[in-house]
């Protein structure tokens, strides 16, 4: 069902834009991390880029409705610096989504009874909380001149839930089965 309320629609468009840009930004920053000798941090950027594409896809599908042009505003961090600086950009962007953006978007979707938007915003919010923590761990390692110690990274293709080492039997956010997780 197409989103009915203009404000929720605007928030979905904005979130789609922001998640799409984060996806591309993290792929670019992954290349920089590889060049600087941080292959695991590069892999983390690539994995989380995938999670951001899951979020963007969820927002896109929640918009639904007739195909039409839209002017979209989405915040973004631009530039390529050293990996430590790129990680700070990632932390800042993810923290903004956790502390500012998604709580407001989620509350609005709840208030306006937009169930698809509510689900999409909830999925993104829960994953972004994890991303902040992982990017901080990566930055601590990079500041010390070390790569992050990682074995495996798993991303839920339904909600973007991100977890290290082993996928759970069922995603704690959306309930997807372990077999659906994508490994990086």
What structural category characterises the helix and strand content? mainly alpha
Distance between the termini: 33 Å
Number of strands: 3
Percent helix: 55-70%
- Give the ordered list of helices and strands: HHHHEEE
- Sequence of strands across the biggest β-sheet: 2-1-3
Report on the biggest sheet: 3 strands, antiparallel
Low-confidence spans: none
Describe the global form: globular
| Number of helices, counting only DSSP H or I runs of 4 residues or more | 4
Average pLDDT number:
94
Strand-residue proportion: under 5%
Radius of gyration: 16 Å
Descriptive report:
- With 184 residues, the protein is mainly alpha-helical.
- The protein is built from four helices and three strands, in the order H-H-H-H-E-E-E.
- Strands 2-1-3 form a three-stranded antiparallel β-sheet.
- The longest helix is centred in the first third of the chain and has 30 residues, at 6-35.
- The radius of gyration is 16 Å and the shape is globular.
- The N and C termini lie far apart (33 Å).
- The model has no long low-confidence stretch (mean pLDDT 94).
List the helices and strands and how they pair.
Layout: H1 6-35, H2 39-63, H3 83-111, H4 115-143, E1 153-155, E2 162-164, E3 182-183
Antiparallel strand pairs: 1-2, 1-3
């Amino acid at each position: 069902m197409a989103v009915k309320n203009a404000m929720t629609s605007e928030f979905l468009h904005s979130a789609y834009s922001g998640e799409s840009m984060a996806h591309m930004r993290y792929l670019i920053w992954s290349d920089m991390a590889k060049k600087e000798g941080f292959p695991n941090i590069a892999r983390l950027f690539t994995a989380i880029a995938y999670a951001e594409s899951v979020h963007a896809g969820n927002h896109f599908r929640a918009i639904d409705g007739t195909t039409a042009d839209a002017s979209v505003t989405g915040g973004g961090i631009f530039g390529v610096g050293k990996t430590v600086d790129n990680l700070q950009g990632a932390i800042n962007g993810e923290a903004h989504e956790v502390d500012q953006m998604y709580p407001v978007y989620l509350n609005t979707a709840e208030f306006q009874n937009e169930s698809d938007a509510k689900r999409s915003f909830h999925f993104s919010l829960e994953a972004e909380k994890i991303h902040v923590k992982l990017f901080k761990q990566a930055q601590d390692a990079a500041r010390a001149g070390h790569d992050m110690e990682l074995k495996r990274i798993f991303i839920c293709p339904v909600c973007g839930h991100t977890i290290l080492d082993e996928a759970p039997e069922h995603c704690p956010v959306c309930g997807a089965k372990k077999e659906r997780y994508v490994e990086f």
